[in-house]
Design goal:
707 residues; Rossmann fold; alpha+beta; Peptidase S9; serine protease; protease; 4-stranded antiparallel beta sheet
Length: 707
């Protein structure tokens, strides 16, 4: 099929040609040959910890791809600088959070002008948050990051007695975090060094020990350890080990410091074990044994636990309660009933109130119940599309919680809310130093009919003066996996596209929970192709309604959303002017067949297990982007990866680009950018990240012919 696209890439050098080293694989009587399987480094576990161990042949190939990408994007250098300056100009450089009160102090974060990393500070409980003289600097992220190509902080968790803090960092991008312990009175770190952790710890109430998860050699958090301050890591006590590689594990603590939570889960099943802080050496107590498809999470409410669960066919979840001393499932009693179409997302409990965040008709709201009277009221807003964030409080004995609100046109607003008087106190409005007038923009939500009659919500942002006659370029973003809903929130970066006449659109496709839990179920396993068809339907609807045209749509998605990009490229390449696939999960079948990779066993409930099931093998093989590349009119494609990414390994987009270039050489071009010193999230500094967004948007603007 002939596709009318603007010729925007000129005088390109010869693209890198990857060597073909066929490897055959036979499963369920079916044999496939993979010419680029060699790109999966056999020493990937060691390389994630030390990137210098990368095979020289692979390094040369990735560097050649980066050079080709640089040549293709050379004419956008000035545009990238302009975009970066715009985006940076919308950020208050010396910004500071509103400190959260916890006992004798309030804790917050701040940035300095020019700084990439956050600083952690505290002030006395009753001090004026704006009085910088009262602040005590606890951790300077910029100082800790000095001399490192990559640096990501995992936060600072203070002990109950406020004397010490656990902080963690990853300096490879591989998400193996090192933990240190800081004396908060002196600012000095103790000698303790805990390696290869999941990135945080939970203090015991006495502040003399804490609990953390250890990542195993396959990058899975499979063990919980108890560390006593001052002892070597080798002396740490194993508290619990999860032997099923299909489950993730995390450790947390209750607001009242009465319990340590061990949370074991995959994408559809969960199990909790509790450790009373009154007996740290005890065996963790099982709450409710895991049952396939049954999820639950817990929060403490004094003499009861509140349990959010889908048990008993409560697809959109309900809230139960059980006595603290007998939290087993036999003692669960319903306190918030299941309502089909009202999805309860999370819950919190305080001395006098139970609160939860729910989603109805695709929009969030906060509901508050008085625990004494049972009276309920809610917090909601009137815009067509908006985002709510529930921060809650750090103290149990409180009537005041904190939440945030924004929309695609309205900068984030932070509120304290008195649950008894129902008064809102605006604490902070996100500043846009270069200026922002919400009245210059429009945010809308339209509904796109999909192939089976389902209506797909699409959130839109554009300037009021944007012509809606089909001539506007459009960046259409999608994700659609794990039940994650993409919020219609304020973004300072998206304004750079809107100001250039773009319609910025988010397709809330199946695979997320935007329209309830069934919206998620209808976009996973054997129904995964609904995700892809929904996205194409969103593109069709935007064209039909003259928001844009097929020659002007640039599609974008990352990680599992990158899989979406690979699938729609195979299914409807003629409907997109360009595609941006960030850390794209495109080699789905091979990855789900490789049970040594970090996320493979835990992800079988999301995609299927092709090792055990011929039927599930068939589902994945039918859409796996890498396996379905054909001789088609693909648009220009930009793939972005991170060398030390443990979630979507660098070889997935590398193999995909090589196969695209071999199979459809007259289409494209296909560009691969590999961050040689970063992982899944790209570079970690706040301005470094803006440089990456500016690069992606420069590609979109170039492909749209708007340079």
């Amino acid at each position: 099929m002939a596709v009318d696209r603007k010729p925007v890439f000129h005088d390109l050098p010869a693209a890198p040609v990857a060597q073909k080293k066929p490897v055959s694989d036979t499963r369920h009587g079916l044999t496939r040959s993979d010419d680029y399987a060699w790109m999966r480094a056999e020493n990937w576990q060691a390389m994630f910890k030390d990137p210098t161990l990368l095979d020289p042949e692979l390094r040369r190939h990735l560097e050649a791809e980066n050079a080709y990408m640089d040549a293709a994007m050379a004419d956008t250098k000035a545009l990238q600088k302009t975009l970066f300056a715009e985006m940076k100009g919308r950020i208050k450089e010396d910004d500071s959070s509103v400190p959260m009160k916890d006992g004798p102090f309030a804790y917050g974060t701040s940035f300095v002008t020019g700084g990439e990393q956050p600083r952690y500070f505290r002030i006395p409980h009753d001090a004026d948050p704006k009085d910088e003289a009262s602040r005590r600097l606890l951790l300077d992220g910029d100082k800790e990051a000095e001399g490192k190509d990559y640096f990501r902080l995992a936060g600072l968790d203070h002990s109950t007695d406020h004397s010490h803090g656990i902080w963690g960092y990853d300096d490879k991008g591989s998400e193996y975090f090192t933990l240190r312990i800081r004396d908060l009175s002196t600012g000095e770190d103790l000698a303790d060094v805990i390696e290869n952790t999941g990135g945080g710890g939970v203090w015991a109430p006495d502040g003399k020990s804490f609990f953390y998860t250890l990542q195993d050699e396959n990058h899975r958090p499979s063990k919980v350890f108890h560390h006593i301050v001052g002892e070597p890591q080798s002396a740490d006590r194993l508290v619990f080990e999860e032997t099923d590689p299909g489950f993730f594990m995390g450790v947390g603590g209750s607001l009242l410091d009465d319990f340590i939570y061990i949370d074991i889960h995959d994408h559809e099943t969960s199990e909790y074990r509790l450790l009373s802080t009154k007996d740290l050496m005890a065996e963790p107590m099982l709450v409710a044994e895991r049952e396939e498809g049954i999820e639950y999470s817990m929060t403490e409410g004094g003499d009861v636990f509140y349990i959010l669960t889908n048990d008993g066919e409560a697809k959109d979840f309900k809230i139960m309660e059980a006595p603290v001393n007998a939290p087993g499932k036999d003692n669960w009693k319903e306190v918030v009933a299941h309502e089909p179409g009202r999805l309860i997302l999370s819950h919190m409990a305080y001395a006098r109130h139970l609160i939860w965040l729910e989603r109805r008709d695709g929009l969030p709201r906060i509901v508050i119940r008085d625990r004494r009277s049972g009276e309920e009221h809610s917090i909601a807003f009137a815009e067509e599309a908006y985002s709510l964030g529930l921060q809650g409080a750090a103290e149990y004995e409180t009537d005041v919680i904190r939440f945030s609100y924004s929309s695609m046109t309205t900068p984030s607003q932070l509120y304290d809310y008195d649950m008894t008087t129902r008064e809102r106190t605006l604490l902070k409005t996100q500043e846009v130093p270069s200026g922002h007038n919400p009245d210059d923009y429009v945010t809308r939500r339209v509904m796109a009919p999909s192939h089976d009659g389902e209506l797909v919500p699409v959130s839109l942002l554009y300037r009021k003066d944007t012509p809606l006659d089909g001539s506007a370029p459009c960046l259409l973003y999608g994700y659609g996996a794990y039940g994650i809903s993409i919020p219609a929130s304020f973004s300072t970066t998206n304004l750079s596209l809107a100001d250039r006449g773009f319609v910025y659109a988010i397709a809330h496709v199946r695979g997320g929970k935007d329209k309830g839990f069934s919206w998620y179920e209808d976009g996973k396993m054997e129904k995964k192709e609904n995700t892809f068809k929904d996205f194409i339907a969103a593109a069709d609807h935007l064209v039909e309604q003259k928001f844009t045209s097929y020659a002007n749509i640039i599609a974008e998605g990352g990680s599992a959303g990158g899989m979406l990009m690979g699938a729609i490229a195979n299914m409807a390449p003629e409907k997109f002017a360009g595609i941006i696939a960030a850390v794209p999960f495109v080699d789905v079948l091979n990855t789900m067949l490789d049970d040594t990779l970090p996320l493979t066993p835990p992800e079988w409930p999301e995609w299927g297990n092709p090792l055990e099931s011929e039927e599930e093998y068939g589902w994945i093989a039918a859409y796996s982007p890498y396996d379905n590349v054909g001789e088609k009119p693909y648009p220009p494609i930009l793939a972005i990866s991170g060398l030390t990414d443990p979630r979507v390994t660098y070889w997935e987009p590398t193999k995909w680009v090589a196969k695209l270039r071999e199979t459809a050489p007259d289409a494209g071009p296909y560009l691969l950018k590999t961050n040689m010193a970063a992982g899944h999230g790209g570079k970690s500094g706040r301005f470094q990240r803006l440089e990456e967004v500016a690069f992606e948007y420069a590609f979109a603007i170039k492909v749209a012919g708007k340079m």
